[in-house]
């Protein structure tokens, strides 16, 4: 636009513009820009000299009038900056035009016009529509100027309503206060009606308007004093000053609405404490039926205001009658909603504190979580003779009320109370939460234990509290830690012979397993079917737990009552690994293969066990079954590694050789041939490569029993050589086997040291060498049993005999002086 003007465009040229009504109007560029509300164009035109007083369109409206008509404050301000003529008629009419609009923008425009100098002349003063529009649209400054200049404060609109009535109707407190400055007639009918409008309104503004009207001097006439609706509206809307004014003028304080309710009852029902206090000043009748019901209404719900209302009613003199103490609902509401003073009066009037209501004693009725039952109410009942039954303790715990549990225990409840199934309160609380280390559960448990609850009490099914926690699905290691620290025994068995460790393998997580083991749980414990926790993990095929248990010393070779090892349990028809139709097991993952291989590497590789494992894998000839194919391949490779080491290569063992050949035929022969060749090369290297500074080769190491490996690990150089893990790159096919052998040896060595510390108690009549020879024949499970025989405080220091032939493997040690005994 600036470019057009610079090149000779006329800023005040008129053009004919067609309108929507098919009429044509003349516009200057400035008027057209204002019509379009294009502020940038308006600014450019005004800077370029466009006239603000031009009138060219058909209705003759000025630039200022048009700007106000658009209700665009910034354009109006821009036009006013260029000094339009305020004596021009249309410019003067901009003010009533602005006043006719509502909202903040209209008020800003009005104030700008007044600041510019537009005045309210006689025409405006006597224009009733003008002042009523100003009141309706909240233009307080306009109304003030009109009234200041002589406008009639009692003027009426076409509906015979005054401007005060209109202001109250708009709920405009500041407008009401402005009008009241100009002394409206307090006896004028429309002004009096303002009360009705104000009283029926909601919110703080309505209340303050009522107060302003009363302070100004508006009175209530005799007709209004007989209007029930008026005072009941005032009560419902909490217009305290209005109700006080009405009652002080003689309105009946016991007046009833069409339903027969008094204003006191209505105030209580609306929980208006200040209103109740105001009404009580005017002495309502305490014998009035509706007023008496006010007390019942106050007791029937829970709120801080109702607590205070009930106290005010009692202080005023409303009595607790025989009907109250015989009214079950009144008694229930009194307890549930914590009206202590009411209950105290009920007790003093002879109420039975051991009465049963709806099959519950008074101490029990408030336990539901939706009620606001507090211990001070229970204390009041107990102090006045209420009996604390053991069943109450259980219900308080079930409803997560730690304060009540503590209170009932203090007053004689049995912390070891059990139901017909032998479940104690402790059993219930740990079973009823799905939140780990729930604060309320812990608080209740601490109270029970403090008062003597037995933490190892068993149900009829033999379950302790620890069994219950460990049998839940989720992460409850903190709960287990809490129970163990408070004396829970970890190896108690239920009627199925399961310990807490068995159950946590089925349902819990690794962290909980770790917690139990840290508190001495027996990793070899057997249930009634002879299954250890490892059997359970294998049956469910939870690889993470299988690996964890093995790493912590679980015996892979132990047999259940059916003679099955952990490996064989996983392959049985009821094992999840064997169930290839299950959706979770259609594909055997790398983790599954590695876990299966780990179990094979940690087993004793007894020929009979290998035969049984092979039979299970061959029991269903499903060569197309991908899972079985991968498991067979894993087993074949494992046996091939053993045979290269010189195990199970006896031609006399015809049964195993035949089965192994059948098993071998079910896998890829080229892959197997390559693998066996690689193993053969690695074994040849292992035979000549020693571990550390010792004479023991890796080949000899893998052929040793676990006990002999443990003895060798007393040599620092031997340990260091294995810890460097160079074998992982030198012998990749045997790396897992070497690593597992090393770990098993370390575990056995640690157990061997613990057993030796207790040797004189375990074997008091045997020599050191004899004991060492005897220990060589024990398996890992036997060692754990020996370690658990005596507590730690019975330990004694025993110096091993370094010259004993059993103390270490002499033939394999290069320098016996390096032994760490």
UniProtKB/TrEMBL annotation:
<feature type="repeat" description="ANK">
    <location>
        <begin position="529"/>
        <end position="561"/>
    </location>
</feature>
<protein>
    <submittedName>
        <fullName>Ankyrin repeat protein RF_0381</fullName>
    </submittedName>
</protein>
<dbReference type="InterPro" id="IPR036770">
    <property type="entry name" value="Ankyrin_rpt-contain_sf"/>
</dbReference>
<feature type="repeat" description="ANK">
    <location>
        <begin position="226"/>
        <end position="258"/>
    </location>
</feature>
<feature type="repeat" description="ANK">
    <location>
        <begin position="126"/>
        <end position="158"/>
    </location>
</feature>
<keyword id="KW-0677">Repeat</keyword>
<feature type="repeat" description="ANK">
    <location>
        <begin position="25"/>
        <end position="57"/>
    </location>
</feature>
<keyword id="KW-0040">ANK repeat</keyword>
<dbReference type="Pfam" id="PF12796">
    <property type="entry name" value="Ank_2"/>
</dbReference>
<dbReference type="Pfam" id="PF00023">
    <property type="entry name" value="Ank"/>
</dbReference>
<dbReference type="InterPro" id="IPR002110">
    <property type="entry name" value="Ankyrin_rpt"/>
</dbReference>
<feature type="repeat" description="ANK">
    <location>
        <begin position="496"/>
        <end position="528"/>
    </location>
</feature>
């Amino acid at each position: 636009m600036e470019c057009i003007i610079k090149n000779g465009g006329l800023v005040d040229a008129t053009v004919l513009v067609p309108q929507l009504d098919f009429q044509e109007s003349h516009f200057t560029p400035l008027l057209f820009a204002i019509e379009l509300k294009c502020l940038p164009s308006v600014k450019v035109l005004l800077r370029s000299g466009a006239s603000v007083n031009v009138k060219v369109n058909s209705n003759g409206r000025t630039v200022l009038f048009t700007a106000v008509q658009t209700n665009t404050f910034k354009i109006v301000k821009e036009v006013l900056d260029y000094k339009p003529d305020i004596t021009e008629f249309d410019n003067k009419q901009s003010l009533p035009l602005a006043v006719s609009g509502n909202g903040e923008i209209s008020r800003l425009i009005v104030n700008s016009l007044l600041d510019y100098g537009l005045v309210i002349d006689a025409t405006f003063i006597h224009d009733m529509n003008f002042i009523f529009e100003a009141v309706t649209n909240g233009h307080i400054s306009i109304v003030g100027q009109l009234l200041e200049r002589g406008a009639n404060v009692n003027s009426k609109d076409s509906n015979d309503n005054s401007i005060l009535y209109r202001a109250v109707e708009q709920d405009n407190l500041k407008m009401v206060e402005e009008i009241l400055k100009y002394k409206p007639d307090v006896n004028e009918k429309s002004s009096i009606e303002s009360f009705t409008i104000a009283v029926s309104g909601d919110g703080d503004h309505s209340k303050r308007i009522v107060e302003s009207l009363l302070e100004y001097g508006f009175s209530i006439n005799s007709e209004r004093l007989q209007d029930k609706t008026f005072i009941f509206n005032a009560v419902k809307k909490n217009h305290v000053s209005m109700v006080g004014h009405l009652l002080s003028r003689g309105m009946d304080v016991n007046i009833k609405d069409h339903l027969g309710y008094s204003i006191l009852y209505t105030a209580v029902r609306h929980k208006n404490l200040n209103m109740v206090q105001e009404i009580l000043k005017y002495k309502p009748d305490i014998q009035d039926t509706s007023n008496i019901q006010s007390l019942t209404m106050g007791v029937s719900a829970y709120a801080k205001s109702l607590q205070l209302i009930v106290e005010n009613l009692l202080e005023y003199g409303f009595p607790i009658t025989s009907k109250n103490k015989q009214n079950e609902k009144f008694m229930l509401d009194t307890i549930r909603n914590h009206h202590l003073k009411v209950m105290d009066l009920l007790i003093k009037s002879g109420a039975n504190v051991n009465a049963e209501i709806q099959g519950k004693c008074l101490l029990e009725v408030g336990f539901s979580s939706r009620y606001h039952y507090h211990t001070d109410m229970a204390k009041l009942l107990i102090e006045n003779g209420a009996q604390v039954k053991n069943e109450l303790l259980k219900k308080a715990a079930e409803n997560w009320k730690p304060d009540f549990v503590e209170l009932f225990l203090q007053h004689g409840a049995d912390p070891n109370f059990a139901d017909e199934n032998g479940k104690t309160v402790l059993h219930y609380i740990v079973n009823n939460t799905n939140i780990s280390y729930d604060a309320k559960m812990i608080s209740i448990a601490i109270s029970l234990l403090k008062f003597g609850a037995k933490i190892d009490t068993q149900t009829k099914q033999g379950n302790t509290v620890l069994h219950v926690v460990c049998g839940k699905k989720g992460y409850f290691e903190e709960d287990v830690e809490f129970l163990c620290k408070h004396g829970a025994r970890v190896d108690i068995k239920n009627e199925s012979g399961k310990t807490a460790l068995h159950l946590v393998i089925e349902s819990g997580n690794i962290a909980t397993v770790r917690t139990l083991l840290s508190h001495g749980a027996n990793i070899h414990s057997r249930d009634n079917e002879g299954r250890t926790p490892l059997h359970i993990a294998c049956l469910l095929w939870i690889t993470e737990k299988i690996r964890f248990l093995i790493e912590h010393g679980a015996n892979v070779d132990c047999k259940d009552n059916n003679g099955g090892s952990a490996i064989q349990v996983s392959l049985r028809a009821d094992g999840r690994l064997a169930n290839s139709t299950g959706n979770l097991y259609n594909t055997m993952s790398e983790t599954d293969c590695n876990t299966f291989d780990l179990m094979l590497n940690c087993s004793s590789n007894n020929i009979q066990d290998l035969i049984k494992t092979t039979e299970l894998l061959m029991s269903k000839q499903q060569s197309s079954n991908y899972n079985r194919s991968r498991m067979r391949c894993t087993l074949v490779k494992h046996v091939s590694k053993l045979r290269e080491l010189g195990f199970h290569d006896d031609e006399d063992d015809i049964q195993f050789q035949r089965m192994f050949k059948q098993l071998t035929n079910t896998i890829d022969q080229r892959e197997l041939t390559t693998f066996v060749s690689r193993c053969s090369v690695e074994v040849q290297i292992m035979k000549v490569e020693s571990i550390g500074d010792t004479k023991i080769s890796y080949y000899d190491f893998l052929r040793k029993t676990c006990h002999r490996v443990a003895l060798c690990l007393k040599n620092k150089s031997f340990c260091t050589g294995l810890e460097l893990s160079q074998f992982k790159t030198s012998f990749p096919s045997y790396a897992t086997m070497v690593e597992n052998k090393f770990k098993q040896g370390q575990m056995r060595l640690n157990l061997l040291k613990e057993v030796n510390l207790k040797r004189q108690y375990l074997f008091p009549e045997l020599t050191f060498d004899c004991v060492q020879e005897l220990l060589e024949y024990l398996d890992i499970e036997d060692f754990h049993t020996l370690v658990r025989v005596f507590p730690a405080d019975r330990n004694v220091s025993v110096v091993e005999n370094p010259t004993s032939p059993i103390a270490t493997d002499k033939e394999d040690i290069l320098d016996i002086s390096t032994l760490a005994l």
